[in-house]
Amino acid sequence: MPHLPDTAQATVTLADVRQAAVIIRDSVMVTACNESRTMGEICGCRLFLKFENLQFTATFKERGALNRLQALSPEERKRGVIAMSAGNHAQGVAYHAKRLGIPATIVMPVGSPMVKIENTRRHGAEVIITGRTLEEAATFVRSHAAAHGFTLVHPYDDPLIIAGQGTIGLEMLEAVPELDVLVVPIGGGGLISGIATAAKALKPSIRIVGVQAQLYPSMYNAIRGEQLPMRGDTLAEGIAVKAPGKITRAIVRDLVDDIMLVSEDQIERAVATLISIEKTVVEGAGAAGLAAVLAAPERFAGRSVGLVLTGGNIDTRLIASVLTRELAREGRLTQLALDIVDRPGQLAAVSVLLAEVGANIIEVSHQRTFSDLPAKATLLELVIETRDRAHLEDVLTKLGAAGFTVRGG
User: Fold this and answer.
1) Which end of the chain is more exposed for a tag (fewer CB within 10 A), N or C?
2) What local confidence, expressed as pLDDT, does residue 370 receive?
3) Predicted local distance difference test score (pLDDT) of residue 373
4) Taking all residues of the chain, what is their mean pLDDT, rounded to a whole number?
5) Across residues 58-68, what is the average pLDDT?
6) What is the 3-state secondary structure (H, E, C) of the chain?
7) Model's pTM, two decimal places?
């Protein structure tokens, strides 16, 4: 059977985290923890970003994975390890297992981002795609591990994993001792458990705030005794965990001060904001902390707040979609439909008017067949670019004043 931690005996201490820091220090980057003055002004607080998306595998998961792998016996190393993961833990285990000469098998749920699957294979692991969720993948892992004698490297419910992730807390408080609040994404709870263990021991007054996607409030439910549903596809698939760990749940209950939920729109906004302002690419789960601060700035006003940008493994197509959708929300990219008379010169008249008010036409098409307009009319469909929502409203006003009936906008 795969190794599973004894939850009755499983505790994590500051000493464990410090020992993990020594074990991983030559192989895992001490990432920057820098102040973002622009985003701090937007949020009304001092905001410090821990750039774990700049690790070699673009994820903090390397820390716990390496700490766990280094604890294997020679016989366990020879037999190999197995892990289940939606992507980032997979890459951390695969990369360091290859470095250490340990055979690795990674089980990933169906629907895991392709960029994470390919990166895991590139690190030399055998990848098995099975199960609709991480929990279904875990069921397969347990039987596969028992059949082949593999050691399970759990993504979050293991004291050595938790201690490894906790090294982030050590580094953040060393870099910025004045931090008042740490805002940390929660999936299974390994990251926030490790960070809270270290940070609360070093600075008992510090507040630890966890963040989960509204679609997967598993730890929120467990701690608050709620029954909020868990369903659907989230941009933050890295924290889409339906069952938090037993060890992590106990640590979160003891050390975490609050848990916030963020919507998909809020996560998308945070991803786009980090690209726009910080010029850094962060996946949905990695942007969850910023999403929480942007959604409720009054809760962090005047504080020194630390955010962990946990990972940067996001498909480029998804980045494009997120950025385009954010432009639409800001009123900078808009789809319009105009009822016009189907005769020469009408398109030119609309184009001239839009040029006069400073709007840029991105796409244009006529729809004559599939509309409810009279036969002598046509639907002119446009995608236009404007400076902001106020500029868009001015454009719509000018179109209306010129006699055009506008749908959308």
Assistant:
1) N
2) 63
3) 66
4) 92
5) 97
6) CCCCCCCCCCCCCHHHHHHHHHHHCCCCCCCCEEECHHHHHHHCCEEEEECHHHCCCCECCHHHHHHHHCCCCHHHHHHCEEEECCCHHHHHHHHHHHHHCCCEEEEECCCCCHHHHHHHHHCCCEEEECCCCHHHHHHHHHHHHHHHCCEECCCCCCHHHHHHHHHHHHHHHHHCCCCCEEEEECCCCHHHHHHHHHHHHHCCCCEEEEEEECCCCHHHHHHHCCCCCCCCCCCCHHHCCCCCCHHHHHHHHHHCCEEEEECHHHHHHHHHHHHHHHCCCCCCHHHHHHHHHHHCHHHCCCCEEEEECCECCCCHHHHHHHHHHHHHHCCCEEEEEEEEECCCCHHHHHHHHHHHCCCEEEEEEEECCCCCCCCCEEEEEEEEECCCHHHHHHHHHHHHHCCCEEEEC
7) 0.88
Alpha carbon of 282 to those of 35, 95, 268: distances in Å? Answer: 17, 20, 10
Single out the residue of 326, 217, 232 nearest to residue 271, CA to CA: 326
Sequence length of the chain is 409
Each as own residue / partner, the long-range contacts of residues 347-355 (CB below 8 Å, 24 or more positions apart, any chain) are 347/380, 349/402, 350/380, 350/382, 350/399, 350/404, 353/398, 353/399, 353/402, 354/384, 354/395
pLDDT value for 133: 80
Q: At which residue do the structure tokens 């993504």 appear?
A: 155
